[in-house]
Structures are given as C-alpha cells and as structure tokens.
Design goal:
heterodimer, A: about 110 residues, mainly beta, 11 strands, about 0% helix, B: about 110 residues, 6-stranded mixed sheet, 5-stranded antiparallel sheet
C-alpha cells in the first residue's frame, strides 16, 4: 500500500554478515508489525512495536534478531550473523490502532548466500 | 495445528467463474482480514471484517463468528484476479495476528 516504505527491497548477504531492514510507516501511524514469510510458507508474526517501545516480541527468534522503532526515523529489524535459513521476505505493516487496520509495505527480500 | 486454515490451497478457474475461498480459525478474534498478494509483490488489504458481510466491486467477504468461518467470493473472475489470497485474524487477546498459508488462485482466459 502506498505510504508504507521498506528498504531495501532486495538484500543479499553472505553467511555471518548483518542485515538491517528498514520500515517507515504511514504518516501519523506510531505502531508497526514485522512479519516473516519463508518460501512456500505463510506470514509469521515477529514483533509489534510502538515508537520507543517493544509491545510484543514473542515471535522473534531468541538470538540474532532485534527490532527497534526510535522516536525519529524508521523502524529497523536487525539480523546479526545471518544464516541461510534467514532467507525470506520480511514485511512490515503500519498499524492504525483506532480502526485496527494494517497497511503492508512492499517487503524486503533477503537472500543469504 | 495452525490457528488459521484456508481451503483450497490452490484453485484454477476459467474466466467468468464464481470463486469461493474459505477460512476457518480457532482463536477468539477482534477482526478478520482478507489480503491479496501478487507473485513477487506486496500485500494489499482487501477487507477487514468483524461481523456480517462486505462487498467491494466483484469481491464479497462474509464472516460467521459463531462458526469461526469466513469466505471470500469473487464474482465474474478475471485473469487479473490471479494472486494468492490470505486470511488473517487479529486475536482478541494480546497483539498477534495469525495468517493462513494462502490460496493460490489462477484464472485462465
């Protein structure tokens, strides 16, 4: 949907490198969700963030993954020491809390070589 | 068992056919969403439902809260409707959204 921006759209990393995925929500939205879509699988919840606050990170792997949503700037999903199994499409969604609607970004396709 | 189950997994239809995609869920929900994902592309929200029925153009979505079931209908299907259709539910406890694995629709001219 127009308004939610993710970059980069495609990211190639070698095993052991770090991946940083960015998401800028729609103007006026202060909540974002991050989801992972593995090949041939459905979307899986990772983390739900409000500006400067992690509300729910129960879907995040315990190691190597972290997320933040600072007061200024985009939300960032960070994957340290990437492995081949991290190859997936990562989507963020800008969340409108009053109506409960999510607006999805175009996704970042991460390929780990 | 997944919280959200969709059927069929794959669907091929002739242009003009009426199409139904089904979604069943097992959790208490605040709302149910139907999403569309084109190959290699992003995700578009088609509907958000908490009760009853909604219509947008040739698309109709219904939900039965008691039976925990929703259907997405496409009337007079067209090749441009070819996409993956995903059912998602927002749980009424906590903050999570659960997604079905999607129904891959191909409409043949």
């Amino acid at each position: 949907n127009a308004g939610v921006m993710q970059n980069p759209r495609h990211l190639v990393r070698r095993r052991g490198q770090e991946a940083r995925l960015r998401c800028s929500p729609m103007k006026g939205h202060s909540h974002v969700y991050w989801y992972r879509q593995l090949p041939e699988e459905g979307l899986k919840f990772m983390v739900y963030l409000q500006k400067e606050n992690i509300i729910d990170e129960s879907g995040m792997p315990k190691e190597r993954f972290s997320a933040e949503f600072p007061k200024e700037g985009p939300s960032i999903l960070r994957i340290q020491q990437v492995v081949r199994g991290d190859s997936a499409a990562y989507f963020c969604a800008s969340y409108e809390t009053l109506i409960g609607t999510q607006y999805f970004g175009p996704g970042t396709r991460l390929l780990v070589l | 068992k997944n919280e959200v189950e969709q059927s069929p997994q794959n669907l091929t239809a002739q242009e003009g056919e009426f199409i139904t995609i089904n979604c069943s869920y097992s959790v208490g929900i605040s709302a149910l969403h139907w999403l569309q994902q084109h190959p290699g592309g992003g995700i578009v929200s088609l509907f958000m439902l908490s009760s009853g029925k909604k219509k947008h153009g040739r698309l109709i979505a219904t939900i039965n809260i008691q039976e925990k079931h929703s259907s997405l209908h496409i009337t007079a299907s067209h090749p441009r409707d070819s996409a993956v259709y995903i059912c998602a539910v927002g749980a009424n406890t906590g903050n999570q959204f659960y997604f079905g694995t999607g129904t891959s629709l191909t409409v043949i001219p």
